[in-house]
Amino acid sequence: MRRTGSVPDPAPGWAVLAGLRHPGITRVTLHRDSGTVQWLLHSDGSWAYRDPATEQVEQAGPQRL
User: What is the pLDDT of residues 1-13, one digit of tens each?
Assistant: First the structure.
């Protein structure tokens, strides 16, 4: 029997919005002692990083993510 349903995306709001605005983004989540680190990566070389300790977001590349 095949079942269907939805699984909520645990991504934070900033990652979801960036993904909607820039299709093709890859989200990488790393867990470390100081908290969860999140990267958004795009094939054109653009990236964004969120530091959980400071709530700061850094980015670089041809697109603003």
Answer: 444 444 445 556 6
Cβ-Cβ contacts under 8 Å for 63 (sequence gap 6 or more): 22, 42, 44, 46
Amino acid at 17: L
Q: What are phi and psi of 7, to 5 degrees?
A: -115, 125
- Give the number of other CB atoms < 10 A from CB of residue 25: 20
Domain around 21:
13-60
Secondary structure element (H or E) that encloses residue 19, with its range: helix 13-21
Q: What is the pLDDT of residues 23-47, one digit of tens each?
A: 788 888 888 787 778 888 988 999 9
Contact status, residue 49 vs residue 38, Cβ threshold 8 Å: yes
pTM, entire model: 0.62
Number of domains observed in the structure of the chain: 1
